[in-house]
Specification:
The protein is an all-alpha fold. It has 7 helices and no strands. It folds into 2 domains: 11-87, no CATH class; 93-124, no CATH class. Helix 1 (15-27) crosses helix 2. The longest helix has 19 residues, at 29-47.
């Protein structure tokens, strides 16, 4: 069982773990570069700085990291929407969560239930 969640800020790690992370990054330059790019992207998301996306993509493209190059290519396909998403304080997370819940309920009754039962199950939780 991991000691930390996936969103643990590396600045908040105990000294022992900070040292281990530093040693791991020093042993693999590619991992070190990926870590820096991911941290920069996380800061853009947290601070709503979508205007920094073009510069971030340029920095990523200067490193030999094919997986991140693929990500950058995908971001470029709809860059205006990505910049807007990284800049806006609004989120569609609640709506997407409800869509996922409805789809789960629908799949659970597939082939055995009619629309009336699905409707009652959806409305019962609201």
């Amino acid at each position: 069982m991991p000691k930390y969640g996936w969103s643990t800020n590396p600045d908040n790690l105990p000294d022992e773990d900070t040292l281990s992370l530093k040693e791991i990054r020093a042993g693999c330059p590619e991992l070190d570069a990926v870590t820096d790019h991911v941290r920069d992207f996380a800061e853009m998301m947290r601070d709503l700085r979508g205007d920094q996306l073009p510069q971030w993509m340029e920095r990523v493209e200067h490193d030999p990291l094919p997986a991140l190059h693929s990500l950058v290519n995908g971001l470029r396909r709809d860059q205006d929407a990505v910049v807007a998403g990284l800049s806006s304080p609004w989120s569609s997370g609640q709506v997407e969560g409800q869509n996922t819940r409805v789809k789960l309920l629908k799949r659970a009754g597939y082939g055995r239930a009619n629309f009336d039962l699905l409707r009652k199950r959806i409305l019962h939780r609201t």
